[in-house]
Amino acid sequence: MSPSNKERFVLGIGLISIFFVVVTSAGFLPCVSAQETEVKIKEIKPAAPFQTKEGVEFPEEFDGKGRIDRVGQDEFVIADKLLKFSFGVRFHTQTRRNVSRYNFSEGDFVGYLKNERNELVAVWKLTNP
């Protein structure tokens, strides 16, 4: 049984309607390409260490230096700046690496390195300036 002219007409209108909806809605759908997305390049600072006469390595440059104003459970206040500890933060003195944070107290002069979240990743006890 072949379709009648009326059935062909209705089928044609239906197909044209579907085509129109697909074509016009394509402009409203979000289309993301690699060129449209922002690429952030993370800066990595080289930490070229130098060695003291005691054998402990220090970075050539610190992200900051100052006196410890307050010692908290998971933070230091250094030179009036609140700096939280990152996960795995390391503490060093001039003669020993990887010491306890309890070797640091208020008034100690320190140098430190921070991560991109402004958290302490390493703290060195330094001699007074």
Structure description:
It is a single chain. With 129 residues, this protein is an alpha+beta fold. It has a domain at 49-125. Helices cover 17% and strands 33% of the residues. The chain is built from 1 helix and 7 strands, in the order H-E-E-E-E-E-E-E. The chain has one helix at residues 5-26; strands spanning 49-51, 57-59, 64-71, 75-78, 81-92, 109-114, 120-125. It has a 5-stranded mixed β-barrel with strand order 3-4-5-7-6. Strands 1-2 form a two-stranded antiparallel ribbon. Strand 3 (64-71) and strand 4 form a beta hairpin.
Descriptive terms for the model:
single chain; 1 helix; 17% helix; two-stranded antiparallel ribbon; alpha+beta
Largest pleated sheet: 5 strands, mixed, barrel
* DSSP summary, beta strand count: 7
> Overall 3D geometry?
rod-shaped
Secondary-structure element string: HEEEEEEE
Number of distinct helices: 1
Short synopsis of the structure:
By secondary structure, the chain is α+β, with helices and mostly antiparallel strands. It has a domain of 77 residues. It has 1 helix and 7 strands; from the N terminus they run αβββββββ.
How are the SSEs ordered, and which strands pair?
Layout: H1 5-26, E1 49-51, E2 57-59, E3 64-71, E4 75-78, E5 81-92, E6 109-114, E7 120-125
Parallel strand pairs: 5-7
Antiparallel strand pairs: 1-2, 3-4, 3-6, 4-5, 6-7
